[in-house]
Write a structure and sequence with these properties.
The chain contains 5 helices and no strands. The chain is mainly α. It has one domain: Ferritin (Up-down Bundle). It is elongated and about 55 Å long. Bound molecules: hydroxy diiron-OXO moiety (OFO). The site of hydroxy diiron-OXO moiety has 7 residues, from helix 1, helix 2 and helix 3.
Length: 172
């Protein structure tokens, strides 16, 4: 069972994950517009992952007998200076999400909510991977440059990213 405070905070995190999905969908559209299909693919995979994060929390709140309360999703940016700008904004956003997950863990500890603490560990680990991926691509853009041949190569490389849907853990 969730406390009201925990329930509210988890609902808030669903909104943040939905915003993340929206933001990356917007970056995907922008990448398509400027002729970067690999970046468009990468951000669309990211969009799918964010929807998965939102649904994971949604299912958890329901499983705990909590109440889902959806809120409006903020409008994301729709234009970006270049590929580097998109990834710097992505990293900054993921750092914000990491902080938000850490605050949820702090609250779960304060509330002595062991189930939610365990549930959130998946997100703590996921954020290490998310920030790591962004740092890697930023390093590549710094190294190879974010125009001409270098950009073309990175676009090709990240265009190979494939979305792997989660296996259904809920089969009893
Ligand atoms: Fe990008 O990890 Fe969820 O938001």
């Amino acid at each position: 069972m969730l406390s009201k405070k925990m329930e509210e905070a988890l609902n808030g995190q669903i909104n943040k994950e939905m915003y993340s999905a929206y933001l990356y969908m917007s970056m995907s559209a922008h990448s398509t517009n400027v002729g970067l299909p690999g970046f468009a693919n990468w951000f669309m995979v990211q969009y799918n992952e964010e929807m998965e994060h939102a649904m994971k929390i949604y299912d958890y709140v329901n499983d705990q007998g909590g109440k889902i309360k959806l809120k409006a999703i903020d409008e994301p940016l729709s234009t970006f200076k270049d590929a580097m700008d998109m990834f710097q904004k992505t990293l900054k956003h993921e750092q914000f999400i990491t902080k938000s997950i850490n605050e949820l863990v702090d609250l779960a500890i304060k509330e002595k909510d062991h189930a939610t603490q365990i549930f959130l560990q998946w997100f703590v680990t996921e954020q290490i991977e998310e920030e790591g991926n962004d740092n890697d691509i930023i390093a590549k853009l710094e190294l190879a440059g974010d125009k001409g041949n270098g950009l073309f190569m990175i676009d090709k490389e990240i265009g190979a990213r494939v979305y792997a849907p989660p296996v259904d853990e809920k089969q009893d």
